[in-house]
Amino acid sequence: xxxxxxxxxxxxxxxxxxxxxxxxxxxxxxxxxxxxxxxxxxxxxxxxxx
Length: 50
Description:
mainly alpha; 2 helices; membrane; transmembrane; transmembrane helix
């Protein structure tokens, strides 16, 4: 899997789980889920250093 595919994986999994096929809706949901997931990962990665 390419790095971009791995980066978009959480949003793609959520879109597939909800059976969203409309491309515009899929992009919106994928963006939301990816922002939530990767922001959480970043915050949890930084917390031990505070």
